[in-house]
Amino acid sequence: MTTMESLIGLVNRIQQACTVLGDYGGADNNSFLSLWEALPSVAVVGGQSSGKSSVLESIVGRDFLPRGSGIVTRRPLVLQLHKIEGEAEEHAEFLHMPRRKITDFAVVRKEIQDETDRVTGRTKQISPVPIHLSIYSPHVVNLTLIDLPGLTKVAVEGQPDSVVQDIEDMVRSYIEKPNCIILAISPANQDIATSDAIKISREVDPSGERTFGVLTKLDLMDKGTNALDVLEGRSYRLQHPWVGVVNRSQADINKMVDMIVARRKEREYFATSPDYGHLANKMGSEYLAKLLSQHLESVIRARIPSITSLINKTIEELESEMDHLGRPIAVDAGAQLYTILELCRAFDRIFKEHLDGGRPGGDRIYNVFDNQLPAALRKLPFDRHLSLQNVKKVVSEADGYQPHLIAPEQGYRRLIEGSLSYFRGPAEASVDAVHLVLKELVRKSIAETQELKRFPTLQAEIAAATSESLERFREESKKTTVRLVDMESSYLTVEFFRRLPQEVEKAGNPANPAPSNVDRYGEGHFRRIGSNVSSYIGMVSDTLRNTIPKAVVYCQVREAKQSLLNHFYTQIGKKEAKQLSQLLDEDPALMERRQQCAKRLELYKAARDEIDSVSWTR
Predict the structure, then answer these.
(1) Measured between alpha carbons, how far is 605 from 381 in angstroms, rounded to an integer?
(2) What does DSSP assign to residue 491?
């Protein structure tokens, strides 16, 4: 294979890499678009019935395009020609029919028509969605051609009035790109000044540097006339020479004249023509294909550095995407178990980072202790419970038929026990609040564990296992915190009450030698009881404010950090290979995404290797 063929074949394969996965929305999508736009391509432009289809078939050497009246080409056809060596069979492949080789080109023609109808319906509507077709043949040069709908001036029946502008906009979207080579097809039996192809090409390429003019139907000109003024650049000059071609006549098409025979007839026409004989070696579809290939080679050479840079950037992004998507899953049970444990450890690591401050969320637990618990303690209804009326009622009920003689101990105990019972609410509420925080951190950690996104079943199992563990930790934490409250009720701090008489005595009036003669059944006495109980409850509240967080952290947070998945690990170890496989049942969309990414990466690497291996000697 020559250097030229290697260069153009290389671009073909890069374009294939760009188009074979054109719907893929991975991390390299921006680079894909940049690379696609950096690659040169040839767009075939012409008015309806200008002979576009015949030119393409002559270049390919096969009769494969739909024919008919009106607009036949209603979707862009991206045609990639691949020159093959040896005994390989000539065949075609459609992108929308992967891995199916078609050797009958009548089938290719029908599939182009059918695929067009699938998108546009059996009407005269057009669509910008391209059809991708690759042809592998020893009779072609490496080339990518884009056949565009023919330019028209009026809408026919079944078409919207906007179809004229729609086709022009579609054609313009391709040929206005600076790397697009324009193949402007004009019939020789019409005035070149009225050529739709030349008109739109001049608008996007006023200097003519990207435009190749092709004259068709030279054999159909009136006798005594010729197209030498156009072919020799006197009527309209381009930077590149005009090329005349003679396509098969309608009679030849009806007789199914072979394209090889048609090429021979074309060569004979120019060789024997009195008008064009001196240009014969620069006319014909075979010369046109070679001319385009040579020009493509020079364009590709100039763009190799930027193409290489874009390929390397795309490969880096694809490799990063592959790392993100993860490796394919092993089939043996031991490797699957190892994979599951690794995924669990990845989740557990992120969960601990949330708790320890490496990620946000753990501070919400501290907020429970520093704000919610104190606020709940302050809202407890001690004012109502220790009101003068309730103190009298409780003390009186505790005395029964025999009023207390000195201090109402049973009244004190009942008031204190009743007050302490209120602490159960904030204690349990703290447990529940921390439980909710832990559940949310688990949910966030599962979502943030990128490796787990591949396995929705395993995600669900981990979520269920952690929920079960957290529930178990919550129940144990509630028992412990309520036990702390009950402990305060079961044994009162005696020293606190032993100080009370001394404090009362010290607070008495020195002029009154008998403070003990105070009325023990008056309002002042009951107010003092309520005040003493309130002071004791305040002391207990301060204690519980410190001990409840300790119990919650020990029973819930500490356990979550140390043994959140312990029960799950035990259950996993008992599962059979089939059950492990079910846990690693990937999301089908993710599997498809990895396969697409891997295929594109393989194609880009092959292209990079070819760039390195091709000799760029001129």
Answers:
(1) 74
(2) S
> Quick check: helix, strand or coil at residue 241?
coil
Side by side, the strands of the sheet bearing 211-216 are 91-94, 131-137, 77-83, 143-147, 41-46, 180-187, 211-216, 243-244
Instruction: Say what the pLDDT of residue 433 is.
Output: 96
Contact 32, 315 (CB under 8 A): no
The torsion angles phi and psi of 402, rounded to 5 degrees, stand at -115, 100
Query: Residue 145 forms beta bridges with which residues?
Result: 42, 79
Q: How far apart are CA 519 and CA 8, in angstroms?
A: 113
Amino acid 216: pLDDT: 92
Buried b (16+ CB within 10 A) or exposed e, 224-260: eebbeebbeeeebebebebbbbbbbbeebeeeeeebe
Q: Which residues contact 495 (CB under 8 A, 6 or more apart)?
A: none
The C-alpha atoms of residue 577 and residue 432 are separated, in whole angstroms, by: 38
Structure-derived torsion over alpha carbons of residues 112, 116, 122, 125, reported in degrees to the nearest 10: -140
List the chain residues with pLDDT less than 70: 1-38, 68-70, 157-158, 399-407, 501-521, 614-618
d(CA 481, CA 429): 10
Q: pTM of this prediction?
A: 0.59
pLDDT score recorded for residue 87: 74
Q: Residue 424 has what pLDDT?
A: 95
